[in-house]
Specification:
single chain; about 280 residues; alpha+beta; three-stranded antiparallel β-sheet; 10 strands
Length: about 280
């Protein structure tokens, strides 16, 4: 039996589309959306790390009110804390979520890493598009007042900031690994993928490279919104509260909006997040 013309047309279309996907190459030279315009530059000399293009946007009720980047110098031997930040993306489904991590240095200084789909100017993120080589992968190295304040200000989703249980050496190793990855993407770009190369999958990979307690990859692939349950069950949260109480204590979106409205940024913003949860 000969295949129907419609079947041949469909097969040809699929083959053409597949060929286009295979030929599309990742790039660092597109016209990027303003929040993804610059990649961080990382220069390491022992434990001293110089960062160029740390994002420090300021936000207001109507969106971005100041676009700015700055340079910072951090020391890997001073990192002593970390927080896992979870941002659900749906009010009706728990599984969709964005996650990122913030590191603390000695006093109230922090630095935040958010792994994202790098959008071009005028481009919107899409779940299906994210599986079709539509976005490059980007590590947004930013002040916590940017990465967390942005999401608190521009959406009404809850935000949870969980303290991570770990050692100084463990935090240092994960931070160094993330810095190396961020720097490598400047010269070796790669595509984001909604399931296999997303925000949580990259965090899981960094942790699993150094931790004897392995995080399951399925959480990152299809249900990142349950990641807090997983890290709690694996005793990776520095608190022993039950799951619901844990979320209640470490929810910070309202506190973040107040901090943004008060004009707090940098260390002052992070201290406000700490104070909001410590008081509960």
């Amino acid at each position: 039996m000969r295949p129907r013309p419609s079947t041949l047309v469909a097969a040809l279309a699929v083959a053409t589309f597949g060929g286009w996907l295979a030929l599309r190459q990742p790039s660092t030279t597109r016209t990027w959306a303003d929040d993804h315009e610059r990649l961080a530059t990382v220069t390491r000399r022992g434990d001293t790390v110089r960062l160029v293009n740390v994002r420090d946007f300021r936000y207001g009720p109507k969106g971005v009110r100041a676009r700015q980047w700055h340079d910072r110098v951090i020391r890997l031997d001073q990192v002593d804390r970390a927080w896992f930040v979870l941002v659900p993306l749906s009010h009706s489904l728990r599984a969709p979520a964005h996650s990122f991590v913030t590191f603390g240095f000695g006093d109230t200084a922090t630095l935040s890493f958010s792994v994202e789909a790098r959008r071009e100017a005028g481009e919107e993120y899409g779940v299906v598009a994210g599986m079709l080589r539509s976005f490059e992968l980007v590590y947004v190295v930013a002040e916590e007042s940017d990465n967390l304040g942005r999401r608190a200000t521009l959406s009404d989703h809850p935000i949870y900031r969980f303290p991570v249980k770990g050692t100084r050496e463990g935090f240092r190793t994960v931070l160094a690994d993330m810095l190396d990855r961020a720097e490598s993407l400047r010269t070796q770009p790669t595509f984001y993928h909604t399931i296999w190369n997303n925000c949580t999958s990259n965090l899981v990979a960094h942790v699993n490279r150094v931790s004897p307690t392995k995080l399951p990859g399925i959480v990152a692939a299809v249900m990142p919104g349950y990641a807090d349950d997983v890290i709690r069950d694996l005793d990776l949260v520095a608190d022993s509260l039950p799951a619901a109480a844990l979320r209640a204590r470490y929810r910070v979106d309202a506190a973040a909006r107040r901090a943004v409205a008060a004009g707090l940024s940098g260390a002052a913003f992070s201290q406000a997040m700490h104070d909001a949860t410590a008081a509960r």
